[in-house]
Design a protein that fits this description.
Layout (H helix, E strand, L loop, with lengths): L2 H13 L4 H12 L4 H20 L3 H21 L5 H24 L6 H26 L1 H14 L6 E2 L3 E3 L2 E7 L7 H15 L6 E5 L6 E6 L25 E6 L4 E4 L1 H4 L2 E4 L6 H12 L5 E6 L17 E3 L2 H24 L33 E6 L2 H8 L5 H6 L5 E7 L9 H5 L3 E4 L13 H5 L14 E5 L12 E3 L9 H12 L9 H11 L1 H4 L1 H5 L15 H12 L30 H18 L3 E3 L7 H4 L3 H13 L3 E3 L5 E4 L1 H5 L1
Parallel strand pairs: 8-12, 8-13, 9-10, 9-11, 11-12
Antiparallel strand pairs: 1-3, 2-3, 3-5, 4-5, 6-7, 6-15, 13-14, 14-15, 16-18, 17-18
Helix pairs in contact: 3-5, 3-6, 4-5, 5-6, 11-17
C-alpha cells in the first residue's frame, strides 16, 4: 500500500462509527505520535529502579554509569552536527538530564531525596517539550521542509548552506541564504542557478540571485514559478502626459506586475540590443510614444537602414527624422556641433547640467546671461538623439562615430540612444560602449548579452539568450536610477497591437495630434548649430522626411548609377546654366592657370581649387569624400596624391571635414566646406 492509501484507510477509520470503541481508537491514534517521549520517560524510571537493585552497593558501577552518561551526552551532541542547532541542543539536554537521573537513582535509589520530584517534574517537562516540538514541526513542516531543502542544496553543489525565513508572496518566493564560511561564495551560487532551476523544474529565468553587498556568502534567492509575462499588456497610454522628461518613462511591466520605468536623465545614454523578432522595435515605439507626450524634449531619430519604415506614424512629431545615409551622417555632425553650443548656453545661464528649469523662459536672475537681472532668454529643451539600426551607420562612418557624443553630451542635455541587433567590439568601439551606461537587452543569441549587460547582472541570473526571438518584448533594463535588484528581473514592453489592425497607427496619431501643442520646438542655439553642420539636410529636413512615396503604377525602368548621378547633378543646375555643356573643359581661372612652360598652380591657387572641388562633391556626392575621388583632378590641381591627402587631413583638423573610421575617407560638412 502507498502512503496515500494508508492515510485514506486511517481517515476512513476515523470517519466510521461513533461508538465508544471507535472514539477510543480515534483518541489512541491521535495520541500515538506524542507517546514516545512519555514511554521513554517511564522506561528510564523502571531502568533506574532496576539498576539500583543491581548496583546500589557497587562503587565501580557508579564510576561506569557516570562515564557512560558523559559519553552518551557527548555522542548525542556529535551526532546532531548535521541537524539544526535547536534540535541538537534539545537532544543533548534531554540525554544529559535523563542519564544523570538514571545514574543517581542507580546509586542511591529512585525514591531517595529529591529524585522522585525531579523525575516527575523533570521527566514530564522534557516529554512535554518534545510533544510541543512535534506539534510545531507538524504545523510548519519543519522536518520535511528542512530535509528536502538540504537534499536539494546538496544535489546542486551547495551543501551545508543555511536557508533562513522564507517569504512567500503571490507568484514570488524569497529565500535568504547563508553559505558555509570559507567553503562557498556567491559566485558558486550563480553557477548553480541552472541546476536549481532543473531541480525545481522551472526555466532558468525564473530564478535570480540578489547578493548581499556587504557579504561574499550571503544573499537571497528570488523564485518566480509562473511566467506572468506570457500575456502581453496593451499600452495603457502616457505615464505622465504633459510633464517633464525628468519624470521616468514607463515602457512595460516586470514579472511581478510593477512598472518598467526608465529614468532618462539618470540613464543619460542607452544601448538597445535584440535579435530580429525579439521585440526591440516594439520597445522603441513604447519609448517614443511616452517621450513624445512630454513638454520639454525634442527628438531626432535616424533610421537609414529601413528609411523609417517602423516609425512613419510618429515622424510628424519628430523634429528631425533622418531616413537616408547622408541625412543620418549629417545628424551625427549636427549633434557634434550642437553639444558645445548647448553646453556654452547652459554655462552662460548658470546651469552645471541640464534641468527642467533650463527648458523654460529664463526669468530667474540666478540663471541669466545678463548681469544683475533676468535675461528672459527662451529656454533650451532636452535633446534625445536616437540612431536606429546603427550598425549600418557605423559601417559607413566608423565604429568610433558616437564616442565623442557619448563622452561629452551629458552636461549639454543630450541623450544618445544606439539601437542595433547585435552589438560587438567589431561594430561599436569599447570607448563608446563604456560611455553608454544604460542598456535594454531583448532576446539574443549565445553570449551576445555579455556586451550589453554587466557581468554581475548575468551572474544574478539574467539570461536573454533563453528567450531568443521566442519571447517578443521580453527585456532586461540596466540603468542608474533603477533598483539594482531589478536589473536581473525580466520585464516585457507594452504591446501596441498588430499593424494590420491599425492599433499602433491609432496610438501614434493620438500622440502626434493630442500633444502637438505640448511638445517643445527646437531651440535657436541647437537649430543654428545643426544648420551650420548639416546645411540643407537639416534646414529642409521635414520635406525630406515627408516626401510622398511614388504611386503604385508600373515599375519604372532601372536607373544606372551613372544616370542617377547625372539626374542628381541636373537637379542642382540653375536654369540659366542649363544650356552649358557639363562635360566641357573649364577655362583656366584668371591668375591661377599654369604658365605656358607647364609651371604648376601656386599653392594658394591649388588650395582654392581643392576647396572648390570638395565643395562640389559635398553637394552631389554620397555624403563622404575620399582622396581617391580627387584622382581625376590631380592634373588640374598640379599636385600629387600625397599632397591632396595631407591637405585633406589638415582640413579635417580645422573642422571643415570630419574623419571616418576608414583611412583617407572623410565625411563632408557642406556649409563648412563652402565657407
Amino acid at each position: 500500500m502507498t502512503e496515500r492509501d494508508i492515510v485514506q484507510v486511517h481517515e476512513d477509520r476515523l470517519n466510521s462509527g461513533a461508538s465508544a470503541a471507535g472514539l477510543g481508537a480515534w483518541l489512541w491514534h491521535r495520541a500515538k505520535p506524542y507517546s514516545p517521549p512519555w514511554i521513554v520517560t517511564g522506561g528510564i524510571g523502571l531502568a533506574g529502579a532496576g539498576a539500583n537493585l543491581a548496583w546500589g552497593d557497587s562503587a565501580w558501577a557508579g564510576v561506569g554509569l557516570t562515564l557512560a552518561s558523559t559519553l552518551l551526552t557527548a555522542g548525542t551532541w556529535w551526532a546532531g552536527k548535521s541537524t539544526g542547532q535547536q534540535r541538537r541542543l534539545h537532544s543533548a539536554i534531554t540525554v544529559a538530564a535523563g542519564s544523570a537521573w538514571l545514574t543517581s537513582a542507580a546509586l542511591s535509589g529512585p525514591l531517595t531525596g529529591p529524585l522522585p520530584d525531579l523525575y516527575l517534574m523533570g521527566g514530564a517537562g522534557l516529554a512535554l517539550s518534545w510533544n510541543i516540538r512535534h506539534v510545531l514541526r507538524s504545523s510548519a513542516g519543519e522536518t520535511s521542509g528542512s530535509d528536502s531543502d538540504k537534499g536539494l542544496l546538496e544535489k546542486v553543489g551547495l551543501a551545508r548552506t543555511k536557508l533562513k525565513e522564507v517569504r512567500v508572496e503571490p507568484n514570488r518566493v524569497t529565500v535568504p541564504y547563508e553559505l558555509p564560511a570559507g567553503e562557498l561564495t556567491n559566485d558558486d551560487v550563480a553557477r548553480a542557478i541552472p541546476r536549481i532551476a532543473s531541480a525545481l523544474d522551472v526555466p532558468t529565468t525564473a530564478i535570480r540571485v540578489q547578493h548581499d553587498p556587504d557579504s561574499a556568502r550571503k544573499g537571497q534567492f528570488v523564485i518566480v514559478p509562473e511566467d506572468m509575462l506570457k500575456t502581453p499588456t496593451i499600452w495603457p497610454g502616457p505615464y505622465a502626459p504633459g510633464e517633464s522628461v525628468a519624470v521616468p518613462l514607463r515602457l512595460g511591466v516586470y514579472d511581478d506586475g510593477s512598472d518598467l520605468l526608465l529614468p532618462l536623465l539618470d540613464a543619460i545614454h542607452l544601448l538597445v540590443m535584440g535579435m530580429t523578432g525579439s521585440g526591440k522595435t516594439e520597445g522603441a515605439v513604447d519609448l517614443l510614444l511616452e517621450i513624445l507626450s512630454r513638454k520639454d524634449v525634442v527628438v531626432w531619430l535616424s533610421d537609414a537602414a529601413k528609411a523609417g519604415q517602423d516609425f512613419q506614424p510618429l515622424v510628424p512629431a519628430l523634429d528631425w527624422a533622418a531616413l537616408d545615409t547622408p541625412s543620418a551622417a549629417a545628424m551625427v555632425a549636427a549633434v557634434q556641433y550642437a553639444i558645445p553650443a548647448r553646453a556654452a548656453w547652459l554655462r552662460d545661464h548658470g546651469y552645471r547640467a541640464w534641468e527642467p528649469a533650463a527648458a523654460r523662459q529664463q526669468t530667474d536672475p540666478a540663471h541669466s546671461c545678463a548681469e544683475s537681472r533676468a535675461c528672459g532668454c527662451p529656454g533650451m529643451p532636452y535633446l534625445l538623439t536616437w540612431f536606429e539600426e546603427a550598425a549600418k551607420l557605423l559601417r559607413e562612418l566608423g565604429d568610433d562615430t558616437f564616442t565623442g557624443i557619448a563622452q561629452e553630451a551629458r552636461s549639454a542635455g543630450v541623450s544618445l540612444v544606439v539601437s542595433m541587433q547585435r552589438a560587438s567590439g567589431y561594430q561599436l568601439s569599447t570607448d563608446t560602449r563604456a560611455s553608454l551606461p544604460a542598456a535594454m537587452c531583448f532576446g539574443v543569441k549565445g553570449d551576445d548579452a555579455s556586451f550589453a549587460l554587466p557581468e554581475e547582472v548575468l551572474a544574478a541570473g539574467a539570461n536573454p539568450a533563453a528567450w531568443g526571438n521566442k519571447r517578443k518584448g521580453y527585456v532586461y533594463l540596466v540603468s542608474a536610477g533603477v533598483d539594482e535588484d531589478l536589473h536581473a528581473n525580466p520585464a516585457r514592453t507594452f504591446w501596441t497591437g498588430p499593424p494590420a489592425e491599425g492599433t499602433y497607427e491609432r496610438m501614434a496619431r493620438f500622440i502626434v495630434e493630442h500633444f502637438a501643442d505640448v511638445r517643445a520646438g527646437i531651440d535657436a542655439v541647437t537649430e543654428a548649430a545643426a544648420a551650420r553642420a548639416a546645411g540643407e539636410l537639416f534646414t529642409n529636413r521635414r520635406a525630406r522626411a515627408g516626401a510622398p512615396a511614388p504611386a503604385a503604377t508600373a515599375p519604372a525602368p532601372a536607373v544606372t548609377d551613372a544616370q542617377e548621378s547625372a539626374q542628381t547633378v541636373a537637379a542642382l543646375v540653375d536654369a540659366e546654366d542649363a544650356e552649358l555643356d557639363a562635360t566641357a573643359e573649364l577655362p583656366p581661372a584668371e591668375g591661377s592657370a599654369p604658365l605656358p612652360g607647364g609651371e604648376p598652380l601656386s599653392k594658394e591657387a591649388a588650395l582654392e581649387l581643392l576647396t572648390e572641388l570638395i565643395d562640389m562633391l559635398a553637394q552631389v556626392g554620397p555624403g563622404t569624400v575620399a582622396v581617391r575621388d580627387l584622382n581625376p583632378y590631380l592634373e588640374q590641381i598640379g599636385r600629387d596624391r600625397s599632397w591632396v591627402s595631407k591637405e585633406m587631413k589638415r582640413l579635417a583638423e580645422e573642422g571643415r571635414l570630419a574623419p571616418t573610421g576608414e583611412q583617407g575617407v572623410y565625411r563632408l560638412i557642406p556649409v563648412m566646406a563652402a565657407a
